[in-house]
Amino acid sequence: MQVCASLTARGIPVRALVRRGRAAAPPGTEAAVVGGLDDAAGVRRALADVTSVIHLAAYVHQPRAADDEAAFRAVNVDGTRALLAAALAAGARDFAFASTVKAVGEGGNEVWSEETTPAPVDAYGRTKLEAETAVREAARSHGLHAPVLRLPLVYGPGMRANALRLFDLVDRGVPLPLALVRNRRSVLFVGNFVAALEAVLGHEAGNDLFFVSDGPAVSTPELVRAIARALGRPARLLPVPVSLLRAVAQGGDLVARAVPFPLTSANLDRLVGSLSVDASRLERAVGFHPPHTLEAGLALTAGWYATRRNV
Questions:
Q1: HSE-up (13 A, CA, CB side) for residue 114
Q2: Closest CA to 231 of 169, 187, 176
Q3: DSSP label at residue 74
Q4: Which residue in 64, 87, 109, 116 sits closest to 279, CA to CA?
Q5: For a 10 Å CB count at each end of the chain, is N or C smaller?
Q6: How many helices and strands, by DSSP H and E, does the chain display?
């Protein structure tokens, strides 16, 4: 939505691929209804005369099931290959792909760069890494300008999942036992993502793989305090030892085998673990500087959140 809004505001015609009818298309765009990325004929028709393709679709945040790998692969790998084939057939010159830091792994104390060896740990990460490879192979084989952007946690108007849940918890004043956490995590405001996308599409040196972030990584308590300031709420952080949180989460792992349970080791790692990226290659290649600071991005997000809360 934010990508479409930015492009249409600049007078760039945008054709949006949608599955739920023309009413689902972002305002100001031309809707192209397709059955999915596996709808080869529909996708070919949608890409007729298109010069640049921005691929944002992904299969993500789905409940785990026995066939997860196949479901992730069908969209993230096969769907990307199908969209690439249609873009090449249409004679498109650009193909920008939104990937994820999960294509590299789940984090650690090392600051990741584009030279870090990927070691994804789940079906989502593995299939996004394979899709990255397909995009970069098309760039080399067909002369396609095909930048890949690896994104950390994205927040901003329209956000869902973990970022929205964190805003909800802070807004409701829920005490969070995170005051003693000393981690570092990179985050990305959606407005900075849009700016990075436009930068790599508009620059010959943007034909590469890049991490992108708001800038310096922050700890989870720092992020909670910044969200609280943006919302005009107190930051309710409790000083609970991380070792105790991990012990409780291990018990949660056992409970989660039978019924849904929020505090598991995987969920805790997203709050107390580190995942920091070095986005300096993007600056060196195309001169990109995030136009929004973390504080500015959170303020804009809080403005959207207030309107959503009052609906």
A1: 17
A2: 169
A3: I
A4: 116
A5: C
A6: 12, 10
pLDDT, tens digit (0-9, with 9 covering 90-100), for 140-168: 999 999 999 999 999 999 898 889 999 99
Question: For tokens 């690896």, what's the residue?
Answer: 150
Kindly provide the residue ranges of all beta strands, DSSP E only, lying in 39-80, ordered along the sequence.
52-55
Measured CA angle at 87 (ends 84, 105), to 5 deg? 30
Retrieve residue 20's tokens. Answer: 């739920």
CB 55 within 8 A of CB 83: yes
Nearest to 157 by CA among 130, 126, 189, 185: 189
Q: Which helix (H) or strand (E) holds 148?
A: strand 148-151
pLDDT tens digits, one per residue of 82-106: 999 999 999 999 999 999 999 999 9
The token pair at 27 is: 């305002």
**What's the pTM?**
0.92
Per the rule left: phi > 0, alpha: psi between -120 and 50, beta: everything else, 70 is alpha
